[in-house]
Specification:
Two copies of one chain form a homodimer. Chain A is α+β, with helices and mostly antiparallel strands. Chain A contains six helices and 20 strands. In chain A, the strands form four sheets. In chain A, strands 1, 2, 3, 4, 5, 8, 9, 12, 13 and 14 form a ten-stranded mixed beta sheet that branches. In chain A, helix 5 packs antiparallel against helix 6 (about 325-340). The radius of gyration of chain A is 23 Å and the shape is globular. Chains A, B: It comes from Carnobacterium divergens DSM 20623.
């Protein structure tokens, strides 16, 4: 019992860096001892672990089907971030989604089979949330598939010596581009989808998902946060963003309080010719870094905006590996020029990569002046 | 001039994290303005840069021929580290080797052509430092090639508004295993070489190299540090180590003051069955991390010893990527168990990798208690 109280005390103190592992024994059931990980950042949740094992999702790996690794990571961490307001990281614990299994999700993201009494269940399902196939094949005439994937996250609280489910977050990954074939194994075609349509369709689907969850055992009254995520096309170097979030409380069967999230991600150098203070800063940084060696270094960045405000930058320097002393010199040069040219006060990550992988990494957190760096040897 | 004095002042103050770029203009010759990078760690040297460009080595990329990436990095950073004592990082600046070009080094690492008046210059050279081919083909009868590669580093000091060469370090990469073919394009055979032989042959070669350098213009009186490096075999997960260092001062044509460096690198888990406090600690850490997911995580480490003392550990956790929230949980779990089980007080690096590259990174510097971590998203 002492360990458990210490755990709660540390939580209340907001200690996020300490190694505050707690171990409690569940006396009410036959479950094994439960513990939690520490919390390495106030953006992260402590994780519930059972007997040294992590409880993976009932739909483990479904987000691997998204258009790119950038989308997968943006979808998962984005849903975690927008869960912070309903389920603060200092009192809630994270567990992977345990309510929706892979089979259920696989059905829900199919097309609806409508009133077809003998549907082809490989492409449609009575429970499918995407529109009924209208038989059209042209990009602007067919009914596109809006919903690409569903992600469930569970948020737990302490309950005596145990943990109980206290919140669910549901992310809907929606297609800005729906890829399809006109014939099986045929060429790939695309239907572009407007944000306004994604939003309208996404909100309808979110209500339906919440209504279905409400009927499941034990979920009648659990707060459910829902986020709508627009994934970027397959060839984009940027990940997608959440553009709308809502919540269902007090057992409501629909989502209320929808709020717009006005975020966007832009790749530098911009290819659309648009210029701003940030693009000029980036171009200065890029030209200093690019020409450091006789061979050119590649320099790109993903800039995240909230409204018109730049809030985060992730830069990637790609170089050819000729030796470790060159990597050290380049890292020091990148640090100097990032401090000199890149925008102040926002968090910035810079990775230096060769064909062998990451060679060095620089990081400046929000509010810091100096970059922290690490050269891998 | 002000900028230059500030630079020197900062150096004297031992400020290693600041962005102390200095720019001086060389008025005595027509060379372009010179600057230096900042110094991100007291282990690193500031680099001389000319007009935003890094001066690459005259033998750029020669160390890429070593047996593995582990050896390349250990060879280069090792030579830099053993240069610290003669050429301290607070007063000396680093420049890549400018004295020995790739062609010269290529000749020197060949076999000696001995007194053959018409040698095959693709395999031997009058200037070759490896033994004359004795015609034997069996592993224990042939004369193996001891010397695999030569690395030159230059150490500069401020000279008014300019930088001048003030020290040279030469690293000799020596073969613990010499790989060879009996016939061209044939199977690969190996000759194992004892450390004692490498040391004796390496010291002779070092003297010859120093004697040759002394005859080159401007190098008659420059201090030359020499390090003997034993590279590990191609299939080793550990990099090699420097095992002997010496110095040639006051224009001497030989190396004096040879000192043994009693370092070794060991891969955990050990395959030789040897056990120690460290192997037990590592096994505990490994078993906690390995079984965190239903699929096994791979856990290995490179432990560096000085004598019998563990001085550094680099661990690698290999996992399968199912999603970002699993990576965050694993990182927190690794941090907890590294703090709990791995040896205290030594620097430890842990990278968490999937097939897509590095997913997260944890680092604890010497003397720190907590791990710093970064999850890449």
């Amino acid at each position: 019992m002492l360990a458990a109280s210490c755990g709660l005390l540390l939580t209340a103190c907001g200690d996020v860096t300490g190694n505050n592992q707690t171990t409690t024994t569940d006396t009410s059931t036959s479950e094994k001892a439960k513990a939690t990980t520490s919390q390495l950042s106030k953006d992260y949740y402590r994780n519930v672990i059972n007997d040294g094992q992590y409880k993976v999702s009932q739909s483990r790996g479904v987000s691997l089907s998204l258009n790119s690794g950038y989308n997968i990571k943006a979808f998962e961490t984005g849903l975690m971030n927008l869960s912070h307001s309903e389920f603060p990281t200092d009192t809630y614990y994270f567990q992977e989604g345990q309510q929706l299994d892979a089979e259920t999700i696989s059905k829900w993201i199919k097309r609806s089979s409508g009133d077809n009494p003998e549907p082809d269940l490989t492409v449609s399902d009575p429970e499918g949330l995407n529109p009924v196939d209208n038989g059209e094949l042209e990009p602007d005439k067919r009914a596109p598939k809006y919903l690409s994937q569903i992600l469930e996250q569970n948020y737990m609280v302490k309950d005596g010596d145990n943990f109980k489910l206290a919140g669910i977050s549901i992310g809907l990954a929606l297609n800005s581009v729906d890829y399809y074939q006109k014939v099986q194994y045929g060429a790939e075609f695309k239907t572009d989808i407007q944000r306004a349509n994604l939003e309208a369709e996404g909100k309808k689907m979110a209500n339906e998902i919440v209504a279905r969850l409400r009927k499941m055992e034990g979920l009648g009254n659990i707060p459910i946060t829902v986020g709508l995520f627009e994934q970027t096309p397959k060839d984009s170097l940027a990940g997608g963003v959440f553009f709308s979030e809502g919540v269902s409380k007090d057992g409501a069967a629909t989502v209320a309080n929808w709020k717009d999230i006005n975020e966007k991600k832009v790749i530098f150098p911009r290819t659309d010719g648009e210029t701003s203070n940030e693009t000029t800063s980036f171009e200065n940084f890029k030209s200093q870094v690019q020409s450091f060696f006789p061979n050119l270094n590649g320099v790109t960045a993903e800039a995240t905006y909230s409204g018109d405000q730049l809030i985060k930058m992730k830069a990637t320097v790609t170089t050819q590996f000729y030796g470790q002393s060159e990597i050290i010199a380049l890292t020091q040069h990148v640090s100097d020029n990032a401090s000199k040219y890149l925008p102040p006060n926002i968090p910035i990550e810079i990775s230096i990569n060769s064909i062998d992988g990451m060679e060095a990494f620089l990081n400046r957190d929000s509010g810091e002046k100096e970059f922290q760096s690490h050269v891998f040897d």
